[in-house]
């Protein structure tokens, strides 16, 4: 057997727990993969959010590698480049559309 199948490499314990929980939910049927149409609708929504942004200014921002990796995964799911996704999320936060938990 492939060693990566038996012992995959995780970023950290939190990622391992999250992936194991997700796999268990899929196996038990409590979580189902969204149909392609749903994914396309979400992608269209996020692309429209990006189009609605105003003039942009380049900034430099230092983030932890772990956070960048997670943001890239989320952006990929939404069908967006990760920098576009980050800009969109910050725009929504600045407008009060996203709230802190």
Verbal overview:
This protein is mostly helical. The protein folds into two domains: about 1-35, no CATH class; about 35-100. Helices cover about 60% and strands about 0% of the residues. It is built from five helices and no strands. The protein is globular, with a radius of gyration of 17 Å.
What's this, in brief?
The protein is mainly α.
Topology:
Layout: H1 3-6, H2 13-28, H3 36-51, H4 65-78, H5 82-94
Helix pairs in contact: 4-5
Total domain count: 2
Strand content: under 5%
Tally of separate helices: 5
How are helices and strands ordered from N to C?
A: HHHHH
Mean pLDDT over the full residue set: 79
Secondary-structure-based class equals mainly alpha
**What share of residues is helical?**
55-70%
The major β-sheet equals:
none
Contiguous low-pLDDT stretches (5 residues minimum) are 1-5
Structural Rg: 17 Å
Q: Can you tell me the overall shape?
A: globular
Q: How far is it from the N-terminal to the C-terminal residue, by CA?
A: 42 Å
- Secondary structure: number of strands: 0
């Amino acid at each position: 057997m492939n060693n990566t199948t038996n012992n995959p490499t995780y970023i950290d314990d939190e990622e391992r727990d999250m992936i194991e929980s997700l796999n268990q939910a899929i196996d038990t049927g409590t979580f189902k993969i969204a149909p392609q149409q749903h994914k396309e609708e979400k992608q269209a929504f996020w692309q429209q959010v990006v189009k609605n942004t105003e003039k942009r200014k380049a900034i430099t921002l230092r983030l932890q590698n772990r956070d960048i990796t997670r943001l890239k995964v989320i952006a990929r799911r939404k069908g967006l480049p990760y920098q576009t996704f980050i800009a969109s999320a910050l725009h929504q936060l600045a407008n009060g559309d996203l709230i802190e938990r």
